[in-house]
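note to self — DONT lose this again. spent like an hour looking for the file last time. sequence + predicted structure for the chain T wanted, 274 res
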Amino acid sequence: MPSHDGSGTHLRFAKFPKQAAKECFKVANACFCTRQRRRAFACLPKQMHSSRRHQNSNRKKEIMDTAKAALKRLRDGNRRFVADVRNPDNASSHARRSEIAAGQEPFAIILGCSDSRVPAELVFDQGLGDLFVIRVAGNIVAPSQVGSVEFAADRYRTKLVVVLGHSQCGAILATLDELKRPSENQSRNLKSIVDRIRPSIETLMETELKHDHDALVHQSVRANIRASVNHLRHGSEILENLIQNEGLLVVGAEYSLETGEVEFFDGLPAGIQD
């Protein structure tokens, strides 16, 4: 067992069994002030520190596995949607409504465009209570959207956030038109959306893409998705902490109006290819 050195601030540890080390860890953690606790922890056998690192590593792996499982669930659902084969368990029913009336446990957060052709629950073939969906024109990220993602990620411990843009996005087309032919009569509200999108795509207007409208639109959609993903990753202390310490995964994806397929292209974990 540990011996006291008489100063009241330090513990000396000799060689002792692992069980004794665990007991000493409990004592150090519970009975000392902050300075003393740091000193006591520093005296713990190396194998104790190694064990804690191993536990933390296992926990991070479990959390990442949760995020990967959520991502797989979305991808599998989209494949069913494209194949026009729906999961009957996702059908709305009185039993399901009753089941989730008392609370929700969404497995993914979707920040998507408000376009009527891109309903996330249908695109990913999910049911009531499965997804926490935030929709806004151009899938932009403003304070209210950040707050909504923070709320869901923190309250429901949801480990996956998807920024879902789509081909031929009207907000992107409007922004490109504004860059080409500035309007003097644009409403302030619409302008606020355009101004959110503008920084991510105006540099593309200075490249060879300006001569290829379809390519310009496609790359603009993707650039805007990346900008929203980046804003969520780095524009919120809460989300940064959840990403760093709780395994929150933020990825970008594009839905094709033409094929119904969702391509995940930004932020995929290593070893996962779309």
